[in-house]
Please model this.
Amino acid sequence: MSSDRPIGELRDSGLLWLINRTVFHPRGLALALAYGDAGEVTGWRLTGDGTEPMWFSPDDEPRLFAAAKATLTAAEHGA
Model:
């Protein structure tokens, strides 16, 4: 059984990239994490105006894809 994980882990796990790439960016929106003064994640918000698709830098895609794949693989194996 999996345990609750901090919302800030969405970024490092690659899941924020995956969610944005597949759901929000093609619609001109982005799920963004909000950070407090100490660098902690305090919440989230939707950004963008929905008029143009958004994209990550092609340089970031391989690293973010690998992180998301590793997270999903670990979940499939109960980690």
